[in-house]
Amino acid sequence: MKNVFLFIFCLLSFNLVANDLKSQIDEDIQGVMTKVVEWRHHLHEYPELSNREYQTAEYIKEKLEGLGLEFNSGIAYTGLTAFIRGDNPGPLIALRADMDALPVTEKLNLPFSSKQVTTYQGREVGVMHACGHDAHMAVLLGVAEFLSKNTDKLNGDIMLIFQPAEEGSPEGEEGGAELMLKEGIFDEEKPDVIFGMHVTNAPHGIVVTKPGPMMASSEAFRIKVLGKQTHGSRPWGGIDPVVAAADIVTTLQTIVSRRLNILDSQAVITVGIIQGGTRNNIIPDEVFMEGTIRTFDESYRDKIHEEITTVATNVASAHNAEVEIQFAPYGSYPVTINDPELTKQLMPSLANASNGKFFEMPVPRTGAEDFSFFAQQVPGLYFFIGVNPENQDSPFTNHSPYFYVDDDALDAGVKSFVHLVQDYSEIYNN
Q: Which CATH number is 217-332 given?
């Protein structure tokens, strides 16, 4: 009988701890968000490209040191991990934020707009947190600030992951989540679960996710069309790779519309770069193009490779040209898959954290995320936060020079992480 009472007491004590932690964030959120906004503005003003996040890493290190946390730095060039040790038994929960910015010249006129300039692929260009990674880092620092001061209410431990190069490492370099795993961040202490988030141009403060495939796989391809240079006034004297390339681009679109069974798999093939020629009256020797492949079914990638090769080779041949084809010059990202059981269990947590502004995504997104590598190692849950200004629609998506994050919407990110941490630890301990 004594053991029964002891069990009931422990259970009640655990639930009290759980409720205390979630109610505490509601009480503390204003103070936490003051710091989150300050940190985001700084990070936004000083963005850095993939594998070059040196100042960013130093800034994060400074904040982690200020919280008295144990951490490791220099992982995958500039990445960091840190630990928050709870006073109560429970799981090891990983929380991840990405660090890198994009080669985008900012067009927002903000007091903290980026003025950073760099050379990217031989061209001078601005640098901007046009995908919202500044918000991700600031939110995770806010979560760290809160949890490190409430370890008495924390069941288990937290692993913070600040990851570089989510947008893809420079050519010839490894990077991102894949390299962090390769360097062994899960070797000594493997998390029981991992959570990640992304801001997006959706209604203010909404939270969305879905079980199963969440985001597409991503892989680049390159095609070099080889012709024969001649004067623009005498096209019959050479082989025109420009016309051949144009025909290839158009015909590539028939792979999805005519060659794949859309009922079995959804896919996107996009050509984003075409380069060739030096003067208007010279037909060049070659034209270079680069594009991306997206799909929600990994088995379709080999099929798409075959179709791209067939299309490019045969269309070029019809123009008496030749092609050189390369797949995955920067590596590739797998499909981002939310653990189905875990996600279904924790969707009520996201609903509570967002005050009912939660929606289950009806279909996955064709964007890609290297969070997928982490989710291949441990059960993962990835979710989106809407950051449009209140009662406003924004036409500017992630990667736009006008992409805007409303600071007031970021409390949904902080609260979501805290609720996920507490509710998962409750599931784990029971």
A: 3.30.70.360
Tens digits of per-residue pLDDT, 102-131? 999 999 999 999 999 999 888 899 999 999
Domain with CATH 3.40.630.10 in the chain: 2-215+335-429
What's the CA gap between 315 and 327, in Å, rounded?
A: 18
Q: Looking at 261-338, which runs of residues are DSSP E strands?
A: 267-276, 282-283, 286-295, 322-333, 336-338
Catalytic residues, by residue number, are 100, 166
pTM of the model: 0.91
Domain 2-215+335-429 has CATH 3.40.630.10: yes
For the stretch 34-67, pLDDT in tens is 999 999 999 999 999 999 999 999 999 999 999 9
Residue range(s) occupied by CATH 3.30.70.360 in the chain: 217-332
pLDDT of residue 19: 58
Q: What gap in Å lies between CA 294 and CA 300, rounded to an integer?
A: 10
pLDDT the model gives residue 21 = 86
Instruction: Tell me the DSSP string of 94-136.
Output: EEEEE---BS-------TT----EEEETTEEEE-B-TTSHHHH
